Amino acid sequence: MIVCVCRRVSDREIARHAHAGMSFDEIQFELGVATQCGRCEQCARDVVSQCCASGPVAALHNESAPKTIQLANSITESQAWNSSLHSQVV
After folding, report:
1. Which of 7, 50, 67, 75 has the fewest CB atoms inside 10 Å of its own CB, making it the most exposed?
2. Which pLDDT does position 80 carry in this prediction?
């Protein structure tokens, strides 16, 4: 549902920012919600408070022990980019 008609900001967009940990003031600055006519301010604040009360949408939790990751020294050593395959194409 569109909450802020002036800026075309939906409740989902406000909720997404709130779930990311942003306060109402930060969301207002980022999206421009409730910065023109102001009629949507209470509704926007309600959406933010509902999202803050319900907690984050998803949390990353890894119960296993931390794993050591060996980084490549250069791009040519990376498994993600096989330079020999790409040099043959050119």
Report:
1. 67
2. 54
Cross-strand pairs, 4:
9
Token pair in block for residue 13: 């967009």
If you average pLDDT over each of 3-12, 46-55, 62-71, 77-86, which comes out highest? Answer: 3-12
Residue 51 CB neighbour total at 10 angstroms:
22
Measure the CA–CA gap between 74 and 10, rounded to whole angstroms.
44
The greatest distance separating any two alpha carbons of the chain, rounded to the nearest whole angstrom, comes to: 61
pLDDT tens string 5-53? 999 999 999 999 999 999 999 999 999 999 999 999 999 999 999 988 7
Q: CA-CA distances (angstroms) from residue 48 to 8, 53, 87?
A: 17, 9, 51
